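Researcher: Here's a chain I'd like modeled. Treat it as a single chain, no partners, no ligands.
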Amino acid sequence: MIFTKHDLHHYLTQDKIALAITRKRPKWFGDDIWKYQRYLRKYEYYSNSGALLRKWFYRYLHKKKGMQLGFDIPIGVFGPGLRINHSGLLIVNKHAKNWGIL
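Model: Modeled as a single isolated chain. Structure tokens:
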């Protein structure tokens, strides 16, 4: 669970390392899986922090990018270092916990 900015930074850094990405930000076009993971992490953080406007904004981005890629991953399921290798249908139950590589 991501409760603090430090936790958010840790999760984002570990996800970036797992994806073997060296850039600071995603490319304008492409990097869709990395963008999805960033939206997932930020949605989880703002859901736990109580910032309603940002929570709904990142919820929207998370759902939109998830529909584009075929992903349905709820918040709070995966720990740091998540790596999604492919786009396409990927559905995760909200009761599943701490898988690493998909």
